[in-house]
Design goal:
- By secondary structure, the chain is α+β, with helices and mostly antiparallel strands.
- It has four helices and seven strands, in the order βααββββββαα.
- The chain has a four-stranded antiparallel β-sheet, with helices on one face. Strands 5-6-7 form a three-stranded antiparallel β-sheet.
- A hairpin with a 2-residue loop joins strand 6 (about 105-115) and strand 7 (about 115-120).
- The protein is elongated.
- The model is unreliable at about 1-5 (pLDDT under 50).
């Protein structure tokens, strides 16, 4: 009897993150208006940054799933909201990069697909990156 293939798994941005970004954009726009004091540059600059923050929040709504795995390979986010399918044969390595600087540790999940390198942080996947790396490694066929 053949073993059952592992079920597909996906990781997404935290559900509250787009709301936090949108509220930050609104607060920034309001602050720009409050501190304008007759200067048109301050509200314009605050508005431009707020629009950028809203565009970033919209990406989290349009493409919340950043990484998915199934027995045939990975699906990763590409560009603003596109997706790219990576068969296991295209994935050269999966590794967790940890860097410490000034008492802070930053972690990045790296998926090397030859000409492309995909980087994910904790806020991209809403899961501990070491656990995601372990799941991806376990899902990868033994021939790689």
């Amino acid at each position: 009897m053949d073993p059952q293939p592992s079920p597909a798994r996906q990781w997404r941005v935290p559900r509250a993150l787009p709301l936090v970004k949108a509220l930050g954009a609104l607060a920034l726009a309001a602050l720009g208006l409050l501190l304008a004091a007759g200067d048109p540059v301050r509200p314009a600059l605050a508005g431009a940054v707020a629009v950028g923050l809203l565009a970033w929040a919209l990406r989290d709504i349009v493409a919340p799933v950043r990484l998915a795995v199934d027995p045939d390979g990975l699906t990763v986010i590409r560009g603003y909201a596109g997706r790219r399918r990576l068969p296991w044969a295209a994935v050269e390595s999966i590794r967790l990069d940890r860097r410490s600087r000034r008492g802070l540790t930053a972690e990045t999940l790296e998926i090397d697909a030859g000409e492309s390198l995909y980087l994910f942080g904790r806020r991209d996947l809403d899961a501990p990156l070491d656990e995601v790396a372990a799941e991806l490694t376990a899902a990868r066929p033994a021939a790689h």
